[in-house]
Write a structure and sequence with these properties.
Blueprint: E1 7-13, H1 20-30, E2 34-40, H2 45-54, H3 66-74, E3 82-86, H4 89-101, E4 105-108, H5 116-129, E5 133-135, H6 143-153, E6 160-168, H7 182-187, H8 190-193, H9 198-214, E7 218-226, E8 237-244, E9 249-255, E10 266-271, E11 274-279, E12 285-290, E13 296-299, H10 307-310, H11 323-343, H12 357-375
Parallel strand pairs: 1-2, 1-3, 3-4, 4-5, 6-9
Antiparallel strand pairs: 6-10, 7-8, 8-9, 10-11, 11-12, 12-13
The structure holds 1,4-dihydronicotinamide adenine dinucleotide (NAI).
Organism: Thalassospira profundimaris
InterPro entries: Gfo/Idh/MocA-like_OxRdtase_N, Gfo/Idh/MocA_oxidoreduct, GFO_IDH_MocA-like_dom, NAD(P)-bd_dom_sf
Domain GFO/IDH/MocA-like oxidoreductase: 146-276
């Protein structure tokens, strides 16, 4: 049976003034694969309904809470095909659990949950029920990140020796959480954010990116967390040393106080015969440095790129693509994976190598091990439970 497109999307959170919900809506629209038809968009039901109206959502599919959303959508023949969860971290688990138990496929924001216990339970639930759970690790949507992954896998840089990955931000360099910034307020509240501050918020992106491109499995880590802004309850700077299976070493830096960095995600992978570097503020380029010293700038859209990069590219080289297109690649991939599953076939390239529940669990386990390591009185190397 072939499935009709566009797929119907529901959304929890992402209401007026929220950040990532709007990025989800743009990304979902870009390729015409999804149509937003229902939602419970705000923690305040009234605001949520008002926002739904502004988005052209029918009143009978605008819900006050996620429980009402589930009750209303389950009863419909044209129920949503998947639900995007765009709420603060501590709500991901109860919302995703309720949706999965009601039979919905889910697209969940990272980190998957605020606690490791919740992440384990959610991943188990996804496996047991067979529901699709995609996790929006944005940086794995970029075509040149896929190109890097393919090049590492086919041996272009030989065995990996060292991985350097960083995610520096500057927006929390002062105590904006004490001055009414809603996004910073929940991110610095351990009950709402989870135990890891910068490491949970953006370190999880960096950790996923490094593992995604290299395929390396983390064996042990040791970490040093710092809180530089006075009165803040969670780390705003993290350094993590990593030992991968097979002997490669890694260093991860996440920071919310790195002045001069808007969104400086950077990955560098050094192998025995070459290196690859990618920087998200120049996302259309991948730098390849082979052993002979002839450094190459590999451009998105170039002819000889991998199929994995090509299927995630929309415009010719020179016309910049970026963050929104990368996010849209995740949405197009989720659509392909969901449809392929229902049609009983293997997904095409776009629907492969997607971040799923287990990747989400790995991220939360990483955060847990980082915080445990940093809190230990003596320096300690720890092994995250999910590697
Ligand atoms: P935000 O604070 O801007 O927005 C949260 C929204 O969720 C608000 O509209 C709020 O009213 C709503 N909400 C809260 N509880 C709710 C509930 N029980 N039911 C319905 N709506 C509810 O937060 P932001 O920055 O958009 O972050 C949301 C999530 O997205 C977080 O988990 C964050 O880590 C993640 N995120 C991911 C990014 C990525 O690159 N993939 C980038 C930024 C955030």
């Amino acid at each position: 049976m072939s499935i009709a497109k566009p797929l119907r999307l529901g959304m929890i959170g992402g209401g007026q003034g929220a950040y990532i919900g709007n990025i989800h809506r743009i990304a979902a629209r870009l390729d015409g694969e999804w149509q937003l038809v229902a939602g419970a968009f705000d923690v305040n039901p009234e605001f949520g309904r008002e926002f739904a109206r502004s988005q052209g959502i029918d009143d009978d599919r605008s819900y006050g809470t996620y429980d009402e959303f589930i009750a209303g959508e389950v009863a419909r023949e044209d129920r949503v095909d998947a639900v995007a969860i765009c709420t603060p971290n501590f709500t991901h688990y109860p919302i995703a659990k309720a949706l999965i138990e009601a039979g919905f496929d889910v697209i969940c924001e990272k980190p998957l949950t605020a606690t490791l216990e919740d992440a384990v339970q959610l991943e188990n639930l996804a496996t047991e029920t067979g529901r699709f759970v995609g996790v929006t690790y944005t940086y794995s949507g970029y075509p040149m990140v896929h190109e890097a992954r393919v090049r590492v896998a086919r041996g272009d840089i030989g065995n990996i020796r060292t991985v350097q990955v960083e995610y520096p931000l500057e927006w929390m360099a002062t105590a904006i959480e004490q001055k009414g910034n809603a996004q910073a307020a929940w991110r610095t509240d351990p009950k709402k954010n989870g135990r890891g501050g910068s490491i949970g918020d953006i370190g999880t992106h960096a950790y996923h990116l490094a593992g995604f491109v290299t395929g390396l499995k983390l064996q042990f880590l040791t970490a040093d967390l710092a809180t530089f802004v006075e009165g803040r309850a969670l780390d705003d700077n993290a350094h993590v040393m990593m030992r991968y299976e097979g002997g490669a070493r890694g260093l991860l830096w996440s920071s919310q106080v790195a002045l001069g960095n808007s969104n400086g995600v950077r990955l560098r992978v050094f192998g025995e015969t070459g290196s690859l570097s990618w920087y998200q503020e120049q996302p259309n380029e991948l730098i390849y440095a082979p052993l002979d010293g002839c450094v190459q700038v590999v451009k998105r859209g170039a002819e000889n790129l991998s199929e994995d990069a090509k299927v995630r590219t929309r415009t010719p080289p020179g016309h910049p693509e970026g963050y929104l297109e990368a996010f849209a690649n995740l949405y197009a991939g989720f659509a392909e994976a969901i449809v392929a599953r229902r049609e009983g076939r293997a997904p095409e390239a776009l629907g492969q190598n997607l971040p799923l529940a287990y990747d989400g669990l790995k991220g939360v386990a990483f955060v847990e091990a980082v915080v445990d390591s940093s809190e230990a009185t003596e320096p300690v190397w720890l092994r995250p439970i999910a590697v």
